[in-house]
């Protein structure tokens, strides 16, 4: 059933729609102009395409790497590491937050450690990770987990602790156990917090896996980036960067879609 | 029959910088079927008293005996869970107490029907007005079939017009369901319009200043009581107690 809208309302909706279209056009326009300018300056020799690469070369590299399967392989490796790191980091971070919410004593004990761990640049742990986890995928995933787990714990725990105290009193007056307080109130009212954390963690996990690949790997986009810069193939570096942008964007979009579906009710 | 008894109850809150005596040497009783109001100035310790009775706080001294296990506590705001439908909100207490039997659920649904809220059963609380939310909160409290209802300024969040009608509805529901109620309020007219007996409390720390037997008991509705000629005189008298602090 469609409701009847007033003329003014229709006008309002149309102008909103127009604005959306304009924004999209401007976004595409910006991209086209930047690419065109880049190509033009490189072709006319104003900038050195050897250092800056250029869109046509990037495209050629892209097509070539797709053709021989290299790019798909490396992209797949990085994506897999990122997704695994993301999943482990999020689940582990959430679990730690639950334990610390459950037991106030533990929370007080561990809070300063968590704060320190959070401000520590995780890359500094690189050497330790390599020694403990080896120079394979385990190290890369460990890095991705380390980067996402601490911020997950902090954000989620903060959400848990900010649960409406009056509602907790209501549950307690119904003789709810701590477990029930968690499942009936604390967990559901923090679904939006969890979703926000997932969005942050997409970025965190990518930082972790690429950084990990810089350190140890023999494959993956991070490896390809380092390799490209060592042999001074800027076309390769740029192609990898753009593919990375696209992958991170897609993963973020998936999480954002999930959020849209889930959060409606919270 | 006594349903609730407090004997020389004291409650002291300790914080880092100070100790606050919220309740001091407080004694009173509530009989089965009564509607009792605790009337006291803001911040005198009313919420603390209800929390003590509900077992959410331990008294520092004294004794509280509740002769019926089932207590229903309605807090200062409705506290409906925004992520639960009205149906799941009113079943919350039964769910917590593992009493989701067909009979109990049926009973809760009946309350919704009876008090005109059935059409919202699948809505979320944000679709309801303040007055409706308050009635849903009462039905949630009644769903576990408590003998004694504790009501903490249940109408303070409502505007004046809504307050009068919701007050009538809530009173009506409580009487029809034959519940004992202990209402806490700082609003003299609210206490006068609902209670059979008013226990006037002093400023913090709360203790009993005087107990006032209502002479409006025979008038069946809060609105009717407000319109009674006696109402104004009683109001003046209680106002005097509250202001002067002496009897
Ligand atoms: N958990 C607590 N810790 C410390 N002090 C408290 C605590 N709860 C209440 N108090 C203090 O006890 C006193 C009484 O508080 P209470 O909430 O019982 O008053 P009230 O009569 O319900 O107030 P209001 O009219 O605002 O609802 C206040 O001075 C308050 O600051
Ligand atoms: Mg209060």
Walk me through what this model shows.
The complex is a heterodimer of chains A (about 270) and B (about 250). Chain A has about 270 residues and is mostly helical. Chain A folds into 2 domains: about 1-45; about 60-265, Orthogonal Bundle (MetI-like fold), CATH 1.10.3720. Helix content of chain A is about 85%, strand content about 0%. The two termini of chain A are about 25 Å apart. The mean pLDDT of chain A is about 90. With about 250 residues, chain B is α/β, with parallel strands linked by helices. Chain B has 2 domains: about 1-70 and about 150-160 and about 180-245, P-loop containing nucleotide triphosphate hydrolases (Rossmann fold); about 75-145, no CATH class. Chain B is about 35% helix and about 25% strand. Chain B contains 9 helices and 9 strands. Chain B has helices at about 45-55, 85-90, 90-95, 100-115, 130-145, 160-175, 190-195, 220-225, 230-245; strands at about 1-15, 20-30, 35-40, 60-65, 70-75, 150, 180-185, 195-200, 210-215. In chain B, the strands form 2 sheets. Chain B has a 6-stranded mixed beta sheet, with helices on both faces. A 3-stranded antiparallel beta sheet of chain B has the order 2-1-4, covered by helices on one side. The longest helix of chain B has 17 residues, at about 160-175. The radius of gyration of chain B is 18 Å and the shape is globular. The relative contact order of chain B is 0.18. The mean pLDDT of chain B is about 90. Chains A and B meet through α8 and α9 of A and α3 of B. Bound molecules: adenosine-5'-triphosphate and magnesium ion (MG). The site of adenosine-5'-triphosphate has 13 residues of chain B, from β2 and α1.
